[in-house]
């Protein structure tokens, strides 16, 4: 039984060791995400959305607890690794909504092409006329596609996957916040138009917002987001040459 008597100093040393801090980081990340998700279900305000609240709280905790970034990513990088199977899982909604794809092939195709090209051109213009660090400039070019696709495609541009993920997150949040005023300003009233616009410009966050607007909006946004991501990954080597 004596082996069960833990020395408080030993426990403290374990908790504040690199392994202990890495485990605490993983638990904090999961707690913040699920807590934000629950809060957003209760109160549908934009600043409680998990994509907004969780990163802010996690960042504040990491800096205030003086957790080194390599320590933070020691275990949490497995959460990023889950993006790979998530990418493969995108095949499921494509199969489920194949009737909708056949119903609106031209609209979805034009939305994919316009979203992909406008996203890249706007990023290229920003990089061209605003002085930014080289790593950030290269990581910014694929910001308009969903995170798993962007992190895969950014290597062709010489970008840093972690920076790209951050740019994707910021782009999605901005798109989610400004979409409704823009829809009113541009007189976009149809479910199809709203879904394509959100999926093409704000990827995952846009698809989540579209789902709040309506079921068809959410489905169209998801399909548009998926096809743009696939097109970006397949065309990344060519786009890298064009926009280099």
UniProtKB/TrEMBL annotation:
This protein's record includes keyword Iron-sulfur: no
Localization, UniProt: Membrane
Pfam families the record matches: LrgB (PF04172)
Taxonomy, superkingdom: Bacteria
Coiled-coil residue spans: none
InterPro entries, A to Z: CidB/LrgB
Membrane topology label: Multi-pass membrane protein
Keywords: Membrane, Transmembrane, Transmembrane helix
Sequence intervals crossing the membrane: 15-36, 45-63, 75-95, 107-127, 163-183, 219-243
PANTHER family recorded: INNER MEMBRANE PROTEIN, PUTATIVE SEROTONIN TRANSPORTER
Name of protein: LrgB family protein
